[in-house]
């Protein structure tokens, strides 16, 4: 199973460390050719405007959008969630615009810049240590979007079909369960792998 990590800016090596602990072949995605044969794609945290600018520069925006429409599983963490979102609060331009949610950038930041909290996640038996850094919040979700986790009644993890969006950074912990969950998701889509 080949799992790509969009490797333009942000927490790329941290996602790589997580994938190296699982039974998959990680691929650093910098150009369109790196998308060939992928069974899943992770969009890391970092700075969403920078990642988006580099995606345009490297001509990755449209090819990734196309693959999402074809059903390639994707997981966006923090800035990655913003990149996936269909609507961004008080911002007219969106990036991939494929995940049916409205996100608000730096929404927790106004209260607490960064923090770690144990959260309950649908599909995980034990609580997960979620690391939030200038994190976006999911303000609104479409009908087909499932909420996986909340913090103080605010949505911080969602799933819509093959797409997972997280406000926090599972790659900044030593807990590999979210990556495992994503890989299982990729495996169930690519049943012959
Ligand atoms: N840690 C993060 O990925 C922060 C995301 C950042 N606030 C953004 O808007 O892109």
Describe this structure in words.
- This protein is α/β, with parallel strands linked by helices.
- It has a single domain, classed as Class I glutamine amidotransferase (GATase) domain (Rossmann fold).
- Helix content is 24%, strand content 32%.
- It contains five helices and twelve strands.
- The chain has helices at residues 12-19, 48-57, 61-69, 79-84, 177-189, and strands spanning 2-6, 25-29, 40-43, 74-77, 85-88, 99-104, 114-119, 128-133, 137-141, 146-151, 154-160, 163-166.
- It has a seven-stranded mixed β-sheet with strand order 2-1-3-4-12-11-10.
- Helix 1 (12-19) links the parallel strand 1 and strand 2.
- The longest helix is centred in the C-terminal third of the chain and has 13 residues, at 177-189.
- The chain is globular.
- The mean pLDDT is 95.
- Residues 45-48, 78-79, 82, 105-106, 133-134 line the site of glutamine.
- Glutamine (GLN) binds at residues 45-48, 78-79, 82, 105-106, 133-134.
Sequence-ordered SSE layout with sheet pairings:
Layout: E1 2-6, H1 12-19, E2 25-29, E3 40-43, H2 48-57, H3 61-69, E4 74-77, H4 79-84, E5 85-88, E6 99-104, E7 114-119, E8 128-133, E9 137-141, E10 146-151, E11 154-160, E12 163-166, H5 177-189
Parallel strand pairs: 1-2, 1-3, 3-4, 4-12, 5-6
Antiparallel strand pairs: 6-9, 7-8, 10-11, 11-12
Short description:
With 193 residues, the chain is of the alpha/beta class. The protein has five helices and twelve strands. Residues 45-48, 78-79, 82, 105-106, 133-134 line the site of glutamine.
- Strand order, sheet with most strands: 2-1-3-4-12-11-10
Instruction: Give Rg in angstroms.
Output: 15 Å
Helix segment tally: 5
Mean pLDDT: 95
Q: Mind telling me which CATH architecture this is?
A: 3-Layer(aba) Sandwich
| Content of β-strand | 25-35%
Low-confidence blocks of residues: none
Number of strands: 12
Tell me about the largest β-sheet: 7 strands, mixed
CATH superfamily: Class I glutamine amidotransferase (GATase) domain
Spatial separation of the terminal alpha carbons: 7 Å
**Order of SSEs:** EHEEHHEHEEEEEEEEH
Bound small-molecule species: glutamine
Active site: 78 (nucleophile), 169 (charge relay system), 171 (charge relay system)
Binding site for L-glutamine: 46-48, 105, 133-134
Subunit structure: In the presence of PdxS, forms a dodecamer of heterodimers. Only shows activity in the heterodimer.
Keywords: Glutamine amidotransferase, Hydrolase, Lyase, Pyridoxal phosphate
